[in-house]
Amino acid sequence: MTQSTYSDAAATAASYYDSTDADHFYADIWGGEDIHIGLYAEPDEAIAAASRRTVDTLIDLIGSEGLGDGQAERLVVDFGSGYGGAARRLCQRPNMRVEAINISAVENDRHRLLNREAGVDQTITVHNASFESVPLDDGCADVIWSQDAILHSGDRQKVMHEASRLLKPGGVMVMTDPMAADGVPAESLSAILQRIHLQDLGSPERYRTWADVAGLERTHWDDRTPMLIKHYSRVREELKQRRELLTRTISTDYLERMDAGLGHWVEGGEAGRLCWGLMRFRKPLH
Fold first, then answer.
1. Alpha-helix residue ranges (DSSP H) falling in 63-139
2. What is the pTM (predicted TM-score) of this model?
3. How many CB atoms sit inside 10 A of residue 232's CB?
4. Looking at residue 99, what is its pLDDT?
5. Which uninterrupted H or E stretch holds 80?
6. Strands 124-128 and 96-102
C-alpha cells in the first residue's frame, strides 16, 4: 500500500513519523524500542522501563484464550507496531508469530533491523501498511494488539471493523490509546488536535460503541489517566534536561514544537479533558 492510498490522517501520521527529527526523538527519548505511554512504578523511573511495563501488562490482559498454552501457534496482528518492542516481547513466548502493521517506512526499517539483531525476523513479518486496510486474510488472528496508534486513523470505526474481520471467533483485541474523556467536545482539545493534525480523538465510550458495531464486546476498561499525565511530563523533563545534546541530531524547531505539544497533553490530562487506559475486546464464538 502506498502512502497516497491512506486516509488523510494516516498519510499525515506517516509523513510525521518518517521524518528524521521524529525518528531520532522517539528512538532516543520516548522509550527506545517501545514508543508509547508507560506505566510508572516510581516518579523518576526510566521511560523505557515504564513503557516495557505497559507491554507486559497488556500481555497479561490478553489471557489464556488469546495466548494459548504454548503448544499451538498463535498469531498476533500488531496495529501500529512502531519499532517492534511489543512484537519482540511477544515472540519470547513459544509458538507466537506476529504480523506487524505500520505506516512509517522509517520505523519499519529500524523494526526489521532490530528483529534481525534479536534473531526473531522469521517470526515477525513487518508490513508497510495501514491498519485501516490490513493485507491479511479474514479470521487469521488470535490477538489484535495496538498501543497508542489508532488515534492517528481518519476512520477509527473502520479500524475496529478490520480488527473484527481479522480475529478468529473467540479471539481478543487489547489496546491503549490517548483519548478524550467521555463527553469532552473536540473544540476543547484544539491545541492538541492542531498539533497532531486530527479532527477529534476517540473516547472510552466511543471505542465501546465502535466495537459493538464491529461485532466486538468490550470486556475490560482500566482507566489509567494519571499515567498519561506522568508519561508526557517525564518525556518533557528528558527533553529539557538533554536539549543541548538533542540539538546535534534534532532541529531546534522540532524540539520547541514538541516541548509545547507535550505541555498541552499534560494540561489536558490534568484538566480532565483527556484519558488513557487499557482495553480488552472479544469476538464472540457465534
1. 64-67, 85-90, 105-118
2. 0.92
3. 23
4. 98
5. none
6. parallel
